[in-house]
Design brief:
The protein is an alpha/beta fold. It has twelve helices and ten strands. The protein has a single domain (about 5-270), classed as Rossmann fold (3-Layer(aba) Sandwich). It has a seven-stranded mixed beta sheet, sandwiched between helices. The protein has a three-stranded antiparallel beta sheet with strand order 7-9-8.
């Protein structure tokens, strides 16, 4: 994979406005998977845990609350700053998941909550995770279910494909939903040297207060989706907005929207 995708993702997540929007609008969704993520990592009191692509530190903070010793890494200096301010009892380092700055066999567990889908080279991360895990240590990560199930993604991608274009010249990265497939996940982990891969589906929903919040979240709190929307022809932008909300109309509630956004949890052990 070329450096262009990594640079594109990095520029997006280095933007304080994107990080703040994600925190405000989407963290209520992404944090729903943290408890099962930590359970799958089988961390215990005193475990040394790495939170890879830690973002603003949500999983790291939850691991701290369980009595772990936690290090978080992210390639975004802004996310590292936010995480360190929020959870000063953990250590946070600006680093790349494909080149972990730690000695071999250092960690009891590694978790990554929706980080793997942003990595330019996921197999390299899996190899690095294996290297820095102790024998018997566990890697656990979450990704989104396919767009047919994770309906926010489905609504956005279907609207763009119908009214605009998904091919807008963004740097090509790994397929965003590839690890939602159990066979793909299990094979990738086995090739990296892991054993006993297990894939679990996590039912979740995103509660949005309004259609305006939905559109604001996808336009300001994401990177790939935001980039794709920004490159659509101006004359179709309003129609794309309308199509997104039309597709999500079945999930409207008295208080706003409750959109199905299931996740996939993948875990494995270092032999």
């Amino acid at each position: 994979m070329s450096d262009a995708f990594r640079d594109f993702e990095h520029a997006g997540w280095a933007d304080p406005a994107v990080c703040a929007s994600y925190d405000d609008l989407l963290s209520g969704l992404t944090t729903q998977s943290i408890a099962p993520l930590l359970d799958a990592a089988q961390m215990a009191t005193g475990s040394i845990v790495l939170d890879a692509a830690c973002g603003a530190g949500y999983a790291a903070g939850a691991a701290l609350a369980r009595g772990a010793e936690v290090v978080g890494i992210d390639f975004s200096a802004e996310q590292v700053r936010l995480a360190a301010r929020r959870y000063p009892a953990a250590s946070f380092v600006e680093a790349d998941a494909g080149s972990l700055p730690f000695e071999a066999e250092h960690f009891d567990a590694i978790v990554s909550n929706y980080g793997v889908l942003h990595f330019p080279d996921p197999p390299q991360f899996f190899r690095e995770a294996l290297r820095v895990l102790k024998r018997g240590g566990r890697l656990a990560f979450t990704v989104w279910e396919v767009p047919q199930q994770a309906r926010l993604f489905g609504a956005v991608l279907e609207a763009i494909a119908s009214l605009g274009s998904l091919e807008v010249g963004l740097p090509v990265g790994p397929a965003m939903f590839q690890f939602a497939d159990a066979t793909t996940s299990e094979k990738a982990l086995a090739e990296a040297g892991f054993a006993d891969g297990v894939v679990t589906r996590l039912p979740q929903s995103w509660r949005a207060a309004s259609g305006e919040q939905i559109l604001l979240a996808v336009k300001t709190g994401t990177v790939r989706t935001r980039g794709t929307l920004q490159r659509q022809r101006a004359e179709v932008l309003d129609a794309i907005d309308d199509a997104i909300l039309d597709a999500l109309e079945p999930y409207r509630t008295e208080g706003g929207y409750e959109v199905p956004m299931p996740a996939v949890l993948v875990a494995a052990r270092k032999p």
